[in-house]
């Protein structure tokens, strides 16, 4: 008389195949998640740069972006922990909202990306 069910060998083969597929998929998933986090941090900085003219107009004060102001408390631009933000070329945003051209460098453990900010609207462009 036969009983319905799976043998131990069949179960081991299925578990081995699941383990193999998981071992192939998980590293690429982790890399994708890390890439999304880096992109989200960069997008947050770009959004802050685009918002600078509105902030300057709302406060009626000139905003200066250089290494000194980026190190001040509170800085005009913020970035997540583990990242660095420097201004190789200083830029200003007048109280009227008009931007001068400048450059920012955003870095983490994977490298540094440069952001050129164009006048007069604070349009950020990531340069390779």
UniProtKB/TrEMBL annotation:
It comes from the Bacteria. It holds the Pfam family N_methyl. This is Type II secretion system GspH family protein.
């Amino acid at each position: 008389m036969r009983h319905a069910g799976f043998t131990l060998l069949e179960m081991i083969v299925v578990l081995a195949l699941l383990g193999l597929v998981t071992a192939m998929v998980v590293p690429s998933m982790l890399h994708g998640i890390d890439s999304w986090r880096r992109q989200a941090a960069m997008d947050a900085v770009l959004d802050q740069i685009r918002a600078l003219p509105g902030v300057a107009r709302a406060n009626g004060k000139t905003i200066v972006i250089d290494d000194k102001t980026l190190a001040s408390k509170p800085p005009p631009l913020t970035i997540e922990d583990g990242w660095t933000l420097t201004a190789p070329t200083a830029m200003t945003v007048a109280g009227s909202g008009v931007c001068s051209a400048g450059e920012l460098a955003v870095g983490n453990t994977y490298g540094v990306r440069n952001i050129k900010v164009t006048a007069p609207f604070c349009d950020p462009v990531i340069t390779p």
